[in-house]
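Write out this protein's structure.
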Amino acid sequence: MSNDASLYAGKTILVTGATGLYGRTLVPRLTALGARVRTVSTRPAPRDFPATEHLAGDLTDRHFADRAAAGADGMFHLAGRRGSIAIQIARAATMLGENTLICMNMLEAARRAKIARVVYASTVSVYPPMELYREDLTWSANPHPANEYVAWAKRIVEKLIEAYGIEYGMANIAVVRPVNTFGPHDDFDPKTALVVPALIARVLSGENPLTVWGDGTAVRDFLYVEDAVDGLLAAYERGLGAGPVNLGSGRGYTVREVVASVLAHSGLSPDVRWDASKPAGEARKVADTTRAREILGFSPRVGLDEGIRRTIAWYRAAGKA
């Protein structure tokens, strides 16, 4: 997917949550497009980070948010608290309160700083339970209880973006809803990680037997991080004011398929045990990708199996296994 370099070259682009999964792939892409990249994270910048400027701090602080936004031409707002289903339940107040506050602070800072182009990363967790997640059905029912605190935070902010359009006439924000994304630089801590990185870390650590929550029949839509970043850039270029757009493959994979792929590419064969007494979230969670194709020209290039192969190769090369 080719990008319009004129939107980046010589421009100051702010990336929040920049040391996380999306940011570690997005920042080098922006740098290659000629942008001056200002990054924000609660952590110091990695040694090999190609950002022009890095600010370490907490975006729940409105003054820090204003400092981050000052003088920026564009913004990718990726920051937020995230974690596994268990973490989302245990840290309900953090997931709802801090995620909402972070996003409200950054959107208001972007408005005051007159940032011309903004991409806001929401999530498909905003949807109520349904077989196929279509953008116009978000508010048809409540989100699934397993993800409700993150989901309500994201819903509130999407509604705030709508309100900014009404009160301030702002039509310079693109809203994307990525599916479960994985890849290099992910959170691989099994206590906090999402399904793919958690399984990779557990399998490569030699865990045996390997106990997996649920019965393995839950279906999810997965996206490799390079594809997700393609979608973010497409939204920055072509999605402003277009309303929410799903970023996904449009294909469902069972958790059993994910486990099988991780085992195949790890070369290991632990005894897999399914614990159906533990929560596994919604039975099916697949994104309708029609709007992504029509509005953004977005279509992922890396399938689940190849993405898992690449992630395991990176994990081993990084000395994590």
